[in-house]
Amino acid sequence: MPDVHARLSPSSSERWIRCPPSIKLGEEYGPPDESSVYAEEGTEAHSLCEFLLRQAMGEEAGDPRPEFKYYDQEMQECAEGYRDTVLELYEQIEGAALCIEQRIDFSRFVPGGFGTSDCVIVGDGKLIVVDFKYGKGVSVSAEDNSQLKCYALGAYEIFSALYEIEEITLVIYQPRISNYSKWSLTREDLLSWAENTLAPAAALAARGAGEFSSGPWCRFCRAKAVCRKRAEENLKLAQYDFARPDTLEEDEINLILSKIDDLIRWAEDIKGYALKKALSGYVWDDWKAVEGRSNRIFTDEEKVIKAVEAAGYDPFEVRLRSVSSMEKLLGKKTFQELLGDLVKRPPGSPALVSRSDKRPEMQVDPLADFS
Description:
By secondary structure, the chain is an alpha+beta fold. The protein folds into three domains: 13-207, Alpha-Beta Complex (Lambda Exonuclease, Chain A), CATH 3.90.320; 225-279, no CATH class; 302-342, no CATH class. The protein is 41% helix and 11% strand. Strand 4 (167-174) and strand 5 form a beta hairpin.
């Protein structure tokens, strides 16, 4: 998979469309953060998806698994599910072409705009863009997804001369949280969005112009901790007039709840930024970096085992594996066959979430004690 990324990339498009000057501001705060375990794990999962799909299509492909650090049964099953999903979509369009890791270019609308789509399926009248997400922290929707629309736009630029494309379908396959999202739009809608929304925002972003805007898209911005616009939006809640009346009304609490998660994330970003500065030598007037608490560890486990056994004790404790650990050990199919009837999911602790959350609302007994 290519390591080169466009300055105005599809993956960051929601941010630079919503907040065009964020790209230039972020560049003032150094290169992108170092790769995380989650990013490396996701890269391996994508490579496995590519390999299995190419293999299924009869293409020559080298097996990447011997070089993996994070490969396990879950990754294998997720990649197989992706492969099967793509093949099912492919078989629905007679005479279609299937393009794996398709390099796309949408620079007609975005300066230097390019990227690589996981999979593009194109046939008479239809274009399908499939994107694999290995993360399980945030559910990603295909609906009006700007990253996938950029991929679709680039694919349309390539294939419109060969196919009379009328309908574009965007697909997100996110297996670790059982998220399969699918959304369609017309060719006219895609091109209208490109001309009236994407291109103007990209022109501003390329110059570092336009208005700053705070929202969920701040999450991966390199300037998120120091951005004044984001601070102003979050400080509105901190400056809320709690003086009158003595107690908050329910509609006021409802308003606060709608903003409080963003406030907490912003506060954590500020603390993280300040700690990083302190560790690089900056001296804050009222704050300092200290060592956090840590747990004791053995310096030589082999010597510990020998010493304890020599004293007549057993240095090991035996515990049953957790459900997740057992499932990884056996594989999902064998796990279900052997232990499926011996597993249950007890009710989770009550949690307050937005109405947009897809989980069903709890049926509450007013007399129940949830403390």
